[in-house]
Amino acid sequence: MTTVEQPEPAGPDAGATAGGPAPTATADVDRSDPAYRTWLKDAVRKVQADANRSADTHLLRFPLPERWGIDLYLKDESTHPTGSLKHRLARSLFLYGLCNGWIRPGRPVIEASSGSTAVSEAYFASLIGVPFIAVMPRTTSAEKIRLIEFHGGRCHFVDDPRRMYEEAAALAADTGGHYMDQFTYAERATDWRGNNNIAESIYQQLRLERYPEPAWIVATAGTGGTSATIARYVHYMQYDTRVCVPDPENSCFFEGWTRDDPHAASDCGSRIEGIGRPRMEPSFVPGAIDRMMKVPDAASVAAVRALENAIGRKAGGSTGTGLWSALKIVAEMVAQGRTGSVVTLICDPGERYLDKYYSDTWLTEQGLDIDPYAATLDEFLATGVWHG
């Protein structure tokens, strides 16, 4: 495990080159036109109404031996209307784009996404009545593709995940639409100081628990927006909580963080859908977080299957990546004789990945052996000893 001193956070304009310039193609819209202003107010109202209708997501307990004096919680983001953590992000991005004048009536919204963000954005595009196009890897799970199309979106596939950005930008230019660019704007669109963001919600739900201020919050990174929101909120509220970001194979975030290298890159895409990136994304804020772990993909799958055994719930691979790291942190606390609480996330439901993380055929095709990692988890949960 490598833990290094953090680099300084990027400034407010960091990533403008990597993520492309802010959309400015609004000259064809007369912003003083009463019809446009009426459409804009109605669109913002509809997106805000979605939040008003939505209850908070549950904070579930992962069973651990009482004698350890440690509580492990899972923030269940799979209960959002579109079934994932990305529902929060999509809502924020749509409000950001609408209020900036970037999303216009009749023009498509286009996103580069490996799946869950695109599902949620397709939902919001349908809600306000604009077309939606998802630019995504051809290997995206069939269930995510079905959900995007169910919400009225269209899928545009690329063979090389590294080409998603330029394909999305080109489609926006060709159609006169808006490239949402979650990887640049995720950390900017979310109100990290509060306003019922995910961090504020976690602390409110822990208020009556025996350890209301968690020792650690574990959040995986795709855009990096969630980890940035949580870490910034922790610092803003002056909590002692530490934030850990686990990173899967075929992702450059861990290497960029440990080497303080903003140009770190990976040659191929992540097998754990929704997290891990081939480049250091503008919304990933390394200076805000305290620790990173590199998690083998087989360990992520073993952990997500252990989750089903423990609480009877299937979840996606990114949940497994976070759970593996959270349990490893719990193991360190046990070994040190420390008590406290740890929080991680259920990012999306496992039913979206039955042909991947719950398929032994897929594991064989990918050359993944989860047995040693499953044994590590079984031994730890039975004895409190972590080997591996």
From TrEMBL:
Question: What cofactor does this protein call for?
Answer: pyridoxal 5'-phosphate
What is this enzyme's EC? 4.4.1.1
One of its Pfam families is PALP
Gene Ontology molecular function, alphabetical? lyase activity; pyridoxal phosphate binding
The record's catalysed reaction(s) read: L-cysteine + H2O = hydrogen sulfide + pyruvate + NH4(+) + H(+)
**Among its keywords, does the record have Lyase?**
yes
Give residue spans, biased composition: Low complexity. 11-27
Chief localization: cytoplasm
This protein's UniProt keywords: Cytoplasm, Lyase, Pyridoxal phosphate
The enzyme class is lyase
| Superkingdom classification of source | Bacteria
GO CC annotations on file: cytoplasm
Provide the protein's localization.
Cytoplasm
- List the InterPro entries: Cds1, Cys_Synth/Cystath_Beta-Synth, TrpB-like_PALP, TrpB-like_PALP_sf
Q: Which HAMAP family match?
A: Cds1 (MF_00868)
Known function = A cysteine desulfhydrase that generates hydrogen sulfide, H(2)S. The H(2)S produced by this enzyme stimulates respiration in M.tuberculosis, mediated primarily via cytochrome bd with a lesser contribution from cytochrome bc1/aa3. H(2)S modulates the balance between respiration and glycolysis, and also contributes to redox homeostasis. Probably eliminates toxic levels of Cys (which can induce oxidative stress). A cysteine desulfhydrase that generates hydrogen sulfide, H(2)S. The H(2)S produced by this enzyme modulates the balance between respiration and glycolysis, and contributes to redox homeostasis. Probably eliminates toxic levels of Cys (which can induce oxidative stress).
Q: What is this protein called?
A: L-cysteine desulfhydrase Cds1
Report the source organism. Streptomyces roseolilacinus
UniProt lineage: Bacteria, Bacillati, Actinomycetota, Actinomycetes, Kitasatosporales
Q: Which gene encodes it?
A: cds1
